[in-house]
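Re: export button greyed out
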Amino acid sequence: MNPLIFTTILMTVLLGTMIVMTSSHWLMIWIGFEMNLLAIIPILMKKYNPRTMEASTKYFLTQATASMLLMMAIIINLMHSGQWTITKVFNPTASIIMTSALAMKLGLTPFHFWVPEVTQGISLTSGLILLTWQKLAPMSILYQISPSINLNILLTMAVLSILVGGWGGLNQTQLRKIMAYSSIAHMGWMTAVLVYNPTLTMLNMLIYIMMTLTMFMLFIHSSSTTTLSLSHTWNKTPLTTTLILITLLSMGGLPPLSGFMPKWMIIQELTKNSSIILPTLMAIMALLNLYFYMRLTYSTSLTMFPSTNNMKMKWQFETKRITLLPPLIVMSSLLLPLTPMLSILD
Amino acid sequence: MLKIIIPTIMLMPLTWLSKKNMIWINTTTYSLLISLISLSLLNQPSNNSLNFSLMFFSDPLSAPLLVLTTWLLPLMLMASQHHLSKEPLIRKKLYITMLTMLQTFLIMTFTATELISFYILFEATLVPTLIIITRWGNQTERLNAGLYFLFYTLMGSLPLLVALISIQNLTGSLNFLLIQYWNQALPDSWSNIFLWLACMMAFMVKMPLYGLHLWLPKAHVEAPIAGSMVLAAILLKLGGYGMLRITTMLNPQTSFMAYPFLMLSLWGMIMTSSICLRQTDLKSLIAYSSVSHMALVIVAVLIQTPWSYMGATALMIAHGLTSSMLFCLANSNYERTHSRTMILARGLQTLLPLMAAWWLLASLTNLALPPSINLIGELFVVMSSFSWSNITIILMGANITITALYSLYMLITTQRGKYTHHINSIKPSFTRENALMALHMTPLLLLSLNPKIILGFTY
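Workaround output, generated via the alternate export path:
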C-alpha cells in the first residue's frame, strides 16, 4: 500500500479510538467507533486474497451490528434521561443492550465466534492491532458506564469467556487462533472485576496488551504462524526461544512473572467483595489456558520438535528489526515485585 | 536473611561470567560458603525471637530446612557435572542458573513472614523445576511428567490463594508473626470447612498425599539428577512446612477434617511401601519410598501434638538427606549403564566396594536404623500416633517392616550376588561421587549426636 495512504488510514484508526475515549457526547462515541471500524478494514485487508476478504467481512458485519445495537442503547438512554452526556446509563434495558453491544465488540462469549476466524485470516501485524488496539475503545466505554452494568449478565459473560477461551484454544495449532482464544479468556478476566474495581480492569488491560504485543512481536520476528514453524526458532535465534518461554508462562499467569499480578489483584478484589467460589472457578479455568501455552513452550523451547534434516540449516536472512522488543519483554515478565506500587492508583 | 539471599542471587552473574574451566569450581565453592553462613541460623534462642525484618524471619522449624536447602545446592552442582559435561557452555550455565533461581526462591519461601509472599514464592519454585525436568530430562516421558507436576500442584494451590486472601480479609494481616498472637478459633460452618480444605489441599498435593501422588514417580524418574535431588529433598518438604505453618490457624476444624487425610496417609504409606517391593526401576523405587515417608509426615502434622511435630520436622530433614543420597547413588548407576533397571547392574559390591559402603549406609538410614535421625523421626511419629489411637500401631509397625524389606531388597539386588558380565567394564567411582556421598552422609551421622536442632519448635 502507498505509505501515505497507509499512514492516513492508520491515523484514522487511532483518531477513532481517541474520539471514543475522550468524548462526553454519546453520538461522538458512536462516530468514533464507526470511524475506527471503517478505517481498520483496509488495514485488515493489507494482503488482497479471499482469506483476508472473508475475515474482514466477518469483522465488519459483527462490529457494524454491535455499533447499531450501541446506537439503539444510546437512543433508549436518551429517551429515558433526556441528555446525551455519558454518565451512567439510566435504563436497565439500555444498559443490557449496551453491555451486549460492547461485548460483541470485545469478543466476549457468547459473541466470541468472530475472534478466532478473523484473527486467523489476517496477517500477524494486523492481528496485533486487532487484538490490542481495538480492545481499548470498548473497554473504555465499559469503564465509564461500569456503575450501571447489570452484574448478572456481565459475570455470566465473563465466566463463559474464560471457559471458552480455555477450552477453545486446546485444539489449536495455529498461533493466531491461539492468541485469539487467549484474548477471549483475558477479556473475561477483565470484565469480571469491572463492577467491583474498574481500575483493576485497566491494569489487566495494560498488562495484557504488553504481553500480547510481546508475543506477536516474537512471532513476527520469526515469521511463524503455526506451532510447527515456531518450533524452528531454536535454529534461527536461540535467544527468542527463551523469551517465548518466559512470555508464555507470564501469559499463563504463573508467579513470579508479571502475568500473575492482574490475576492476583482480581482474585483479591473479588474475595474482598465476598464472592469466593467465583474467583476459585476463574483461577482453575485459567489453567486450561496454561495448558496450551505449555504445549507451545514444549514444542518451541523445551524440546527439539521433530523436524526434517534440512530444517537445521536454514538460510539466515537479514533479521527484522523489531522496535521496543527488549523493554516489552522485560515489562511483561518482571513487573510483579512492583505490585505494592499499585496503591498509587487509588 | 539478606546475607544468604543476596549471595545466592549473585551466584547467577558468577556462572555467566566464569570461564569455561572454572564454572563448576566457582559455583560449588561459593554455594558451599553460602551454606556455611546459613549454619549460623541453627543457633535459635529459646524465646523464638529470631526475626530479621518485617519480611524475613527464621524459627526452629525453618532454620533446619534452610540449612538443608543451602547445603543441597553444592551437592546438586557436584552431582550434575558428569551428565552436563558434553553440553555446550551456554547450556551448562543455563542449567546452573535454573538451579540457582530455584535455590533463591526456596530460601525466600522458607523464611517468608507474609503468607501471600510464601504463596508466590511457593508457586515460583515450580517454574525452574519444570524447566529442569522438561529440558534436561532423558526420556520422552519427561513432557508428561512436567505437565503432571505443574498441573497437579497448580490445581491444589489456586484455592490456597483464594483462601489466604479471604483469611487476610477476616483477620486483617497475613504476617505469620502476628497471626500466632491473634489466633482465634474458626467458627463452625460449611464455608470454614471449605476454607480448611482449600488451605490444606495445596500442601497435600505437594507432600504428596497417597491419592494425589501420581505426579511424583513421573517427575522424580524423569528429572535429571539435580532435579530429582531437589524435588525429593526440598520441594516435598515445602508441603510439610506449609502444613505445619497453616494448621496453627485452622483450629478446631482440624480435629474432624483430618480424618480422611489421616486414613489416606496411613493406608497409603503401606500401599506405596508395598509397591516398592515390586519395582524394577530403581529411581521409581526411591520415588515411592519418598511418598511413604512423607505419608508419615502428613500423619504427624495432622495429629497436632508436640511430639508429632518434633517427629515431623526430624523426619523431613532426615528423609531429605537420605532420599537425595539414594538418588545420587541411583544416578551413579545410571551414568554407567544408562538404564534404571535394577537387575541390569547387580553385584556392584565386587566391582565398586566403596560405593557399596555408601549404598549400605544409605539403605540403613532409609530403613530408620538407630541411632540415625530417621529413627528419631519415625519413632516420635509412631509414638504420637499410638497415643492418638492405639490401632495405628499395627499399620505403623507393618510400614516399618515393609520399609526395611524394600530397602534391603534394593541393597541386595544392586550390591550383592554375582555381577553380570556386561558391567565388568564400568568406570570406577570418581572422587567426586565419593565426596558427594560423604557430604550427604556426614550431616546425617553428625545430627544423630545432637538431634535437638532439627526437632523443631516444640522441643
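Residues 3-344 of chain A form one domain. The button fix ships in the next patch.
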